[in-house]
Amino acid sequence: MRPVLEKRLLEKRALKWIPLALATAVVLAGCSRDGYYHDRNLDYTEAAPAPPLVLPDTRNTQRYRDAMPVPQVTAQDTRPQQAAEISAPPSLAIGSGLEPEFVERRQVGNQTWLVVAADTGAVWPQLEAFARSRQLGVQQSNASQGVIVTSQATLTLQSALRSGSSEVRCEQSGQSVAACLDALEQYLGARSATASASSWTAQRLAEQQTPQLQQQGDEWEVVIPQPIDRVWAELDHYLELDFSVEGERDLLATSADNYEFLVEYMTETERGRNPLQIVFSPDVRRMSQQIRLALQPNGDKTILRAINASERSFSADDQRELLERVSGYLR
Question: What domain of life does the native source organism fall in (predicted)?
Fold first, then answer.
């Protein structure tokens, strides 16, 4: 029995080495001179380029053209003759985000005019076309001044307070002509989608003509280089549109005689209070407060101020934030 047991023991030991032998054979096979993969580089030593494809002469030449043709141009001097005019980017103020209608009305007292959401260069040719289509009898047309004098009324065009917009007036002896404005509003509104620029040089607001926020002691104010009537009309229009959220911002009253607006506004400080501050405050919730927006003439400029009309605190930062929002309507 002993020789048989020794034979079986030797067979088991031999079987243990079989997996190791197979793994070693595979590894050594990859180290051969020609490598594990067949090298085909020699198959291309005698390769030669084939002749190019030629389309038959009977082909339709209209169907076969260059996929990306390069136009032939003559060399010329492309350097600019003068410095390019780069306009400032539009304001990112909160109030400037309101989207105006293409044609809107403004009114102060008995004076009425139109505000068109296009620059003067695009509106001027439409005014000329309007005068011709209505057969108003044009007596004088001055593009540089933006004036068309007719036998029935005088049309004037100038840049509006809001950048990229224009003001159109139709007056006779200094008084607004209602029928003319009605016809103009309908005419310009129908052509809002096809408004195009013209060769007329638009009267644009210069950088120094935009509203400037400045600090006087502990108070902030906005200096607007425009007459108070024009400023009042613009603010009255946009405050009515924007201040219509009850409990957050709301237009309560207006006074055209005093050039003032009474608004209810939740200040930035109040909006930023966290829940813990609200719980331990007497109000137990975020509160808005009444503020007067007052306009004051200063020569050919207008001063805009925000005056606290409540017993709640109104910090300089809150004052500045509100003035930035409101002055954004004019940018």
Answer: Bacteria
